[in-house]
Amino acid sequence: MEKRLMKGNEAIAEAAIRAGCRYFFGYPITPQNEIPEYMALHLPQYGGVFLQAESEVSAINMVYGAAGAGARVMTSSSSPGISLKMEGISYIAAAELPCVIVNMMRGGPGLGGIQPSQADYFQAVKGGGHGDYHMTVLAPASVQEAFDLTMEAFEIADYYRNPVMILGDGVIGQMMEGVVLREPVKLEELKEKEWATDGAVNREPNIINSLFLDAVKLEEHNLKLKAKYDLMREREARAELYKMDDAEYAVVAYGTSARISRSAVDEARKKGIRVGLIRPVSLFPFPEKIIRSTIAKTRTYLVVEMSLGQMIEDLKLALNGKRPVCFYGRTGGILPLVDEILESIELMRRGEGIEADCCLS
Amino acid sequence: MTDLLQYEMNRETAWCPGCGNFSIRRALVKALAELDLSPEQVTLFTGIGQAAKMPHYIRVNAFNGLHGRALPAALGMRIANPDMKVIVESGDGDTYGEGGNHLLHNIRRNPDISHLVHNNQIYGLTKGQASPTSEYVLKTAVQPGGVKSDPFNPVLFAVAMKASFVARASVTEEEHLKEMIKAAINHKGYALIDILQPCVTFNRINTYQWYSERVYKLEEDYNPADWTAALKKAAEWGERIPIGIIYKEEKATFREKIGHLKESKILAGKRVEPAEREYLLDEFR
Ligand SMILES: Cc1ncc(C[n+]2csc(CCOP(=O)(O)OP(=O)(O)O)c2C)c(N)n1
Ligand SMILES: [Mg+2]
Predict the structure, then answer these.
(1) What pLDDT, in 10s, does the model give residues A168-185?
(2) What average pLDDT does the structure give for chain A?
(3) Share of chain B above pLDDT 70, in %
(4) Which long-range contacts (CB under 8 A, 24 or more apart) does A192-197 make?
(5) Cβ neighbours of residue B75 under 8 Å, at least 6 residues apart?
């Protein structure tokens, strides 16, 4: 197996190419420019195309078209650019087309800054654009995982015919780690997309569409989408449990904040606090069942996010009032520190800081 | 003439030493001072980019909006406030890429806005990707084999649409640039100046020397009212690049076209006599 030292952004780009992605449409924005740079350099060697669009709106609609044509296709951006893509993503989800979208989140709202953030959680997991839909959302916490999840994202996208988002931030995108590279998929072995507009021969033409003027038909369509989301909830929900076997307390965090929380958990263990880490890997579907399976032993949960508290709402829904929840968050591009999280863990153990916000610095 | 110090153009910037933006800032401030426009009479609208940082680097009313969207925001103010001098400043990527559609529609509307485009033929802030005005030969990290689309000629585009004022300037001719800015601000209606500006860090093709060797001022007898001649002039690019007012046409502005807006005043400037509002108090009596 080939192993390479790579940046997170490069690993995502390499994984996409190995997953059979041959078309990439993007628009420059910090901190994800290594993805388009990698694609621009390498895609032509595979007969693929990198295209810098005139805007993110244009780029996502190019994705729409290429996905409709049956190709594996990807775009990437960072927060302000992702907001612009939302219109297209709603249509892509409605038209049931597979594609992969990478969001390397930066601090917002508005132009915000370029430092790492997790403030686009709501936008990612609740749909983001208009209408009753969801993207599948995967949140890597290492460069290896960024690679693995991106390769898988293309399979999930094709299987469910749904847009999949890789949700990271500047830390995940810029840091360098060793990556074990999986073998490329064989394009000729991929399942045929009989719904694609690839030129009708001896059959009726296919139509890519999200228009249903008849309310009854539209409700039927939305229920069909819901059935897919329900299936995802059953099969695709995943989380990593770390030192949770005997954990009286749990930190819940994803991506970069989970990496830092892991160190805080180790520190707390040294102090004899029985605390573990629940790290959601899929954010939609949210790993509700996995979290509920910890209730028997765990008394209190601490959510750590690089936002003012977004995933905390999904955790509370999952716990449904059965356990108290604390929160610690930093925002605007500031990373939570191990010591700060440790302090929140100690507060939680003393039974303080139970209401969301009160652990906030 | 307003005192130059009022505009505080010595503020620290994040621009590279030698950046063409410094010339544009100087020319703009001198133009405002010579037109006797004091800082409070001017609002500067920008999008995002190195060019778009201008409102942070001089002292006037400032609106730093979204990437590509300076024009719609400026139009919003133009409609709501007839008294303010509205100036838009933005980069070539911002104006001709992300915000290209807005350019087209503002030419159609002809609001009284002066638009200064810092055209360095590259995306500067995001560290050097091709912009809509980049030349074929420009190679970047995402265009390793050069640019694959024809460069956009904003001057030809605006003249073809009969925009009411279309000029080109170059930071290599700073005095001329200042005169162009003054003419644009004095013009009633939408005034576009495409300003050629080297990016000393990321664009190694279109350098100071490249521009100096090519730009020339329009002939004395050039008539900017002649549309057919202007089209020909606007199409000129390459070995020789004309600078000056390429096309000019007096047209009704957006506010003038909406009859009842002519008399409207901004809320802040409206005087209300207490007697006129007596009836409101009556309701409580
Ligand atoms: C919606 C959105 N997309 C992308 C960006 C990233 N971005 C910032 S400035 C810029 C382009 C800068 O180029 P230009 O307008 O030519 O200005 P310059 O920096 O060259 O002066 C881009 C793509 C952003 N801030 N917002
Ligand atoms: Mg530029």
Answers:
(1) 999 999 999 999 999 999
(2) 96
(3) 98
(4) A193/A70, A193/A158, A195/A96, A195/A161, A196/A68, A196/A69, A196/A70, A197/A68, A197/A69, A197/A70
(5) B106, B109, B111, B113, B254
Query: What is the reported pLDDT for A353?
Result: 67
Mean per-residue pLDDT, B179-187: 98
Q: Residue A174: CB partners within 8 Å, gap ≥ 6? A: A7, A8, A9, A31, A34
Identify which ligand lies nearest to the alpha carbon of B94. 1
Question: Do residues A179 and A147 lie in contact, with contact meaning Cβ atoms separated by under 8 Å?
Answer: yes
What does the buried/exposed string (b/e) look like for A214-238 if buried means 16 or more CB atoms within 10 Å of the residue's CB? eeeebeebeeebeebbeebbeebbe
Q: Helix (H, G, I), strand (E, B), or coil: what is residue B63?
A: strand
Report DSSP state, residue B123. Answer: B
Judge whether residue A360 has pLDDT over 50.
Answer: no
Q: Tell me the C-alpha distance between B50 and B54, whole Å.
A: 8
Nearest CA-CA partner of A276 in A249, A305, A314:
A249
Question: Above 90 in pLDDT, residue B265?
Answer: no
8 Å CB contact between A278 and A294: yes
Q: Which amino acid is at B76?
A: G
Q: What residues contact A313, with CB distance under 8 A and at least 6 apart?
A: none
Residue A354, pLDDT > 70, answer no
Domains of chain A: 2-235 (3.40.50.970), 239-349 (3.40.50.920)
Residue A4's SS3 state is: strand
Provide the pLDDT for residue A351. 84
Residues of A in contact with B132 (CB under 8 A): 54
Contact residues, chain B, for A54 at CB < 8 Å: 97-98, 100, 132
Cβ-Cβ contacts under 8 Å for A202 (sequence gap 6 or more): none
In this complex, is the C-beta atom of A80 within 8 Å of any C-beta atom belonging to chain B? yes
Question: Taking a C-beta distance cutoff of 8 angstroms, is the pair A246, A294 a contact?
Answer: no
Nearest CA in chain B to A31: B126
CA atoms within a 13 Å half-sphere pointing along the CA-CB vector of B113: 33
What is the reported pTM?
0.94
CATH C-level class of B4-282: alpha beta
A116 DSSP assignment? B
B34 C-beta neighbours (distance < 10 Å), count: 15
| A87 Cβ under 8 Å from any chain B Cβ | no
Distance from CA of A156 to the nearest CA of B (A): 28
Backbone angles phi, psi at A130, to 5 degrees: -85, 155
What length does chain B have? Answer: 285
A40 by DSSP, 3-state: which? helix
B124 C-alpha to center of ligand 1: Å? 8
Q: Does A30 touch chain B (CB under 8 A)?
A: yes
What's the alpha-carbon Rg for chain A, to the nearest Å? 21
Check pLDDT > 80 for residue B267: no
Strands A176-181 and A2-7: what pairing?
A: antiparallel
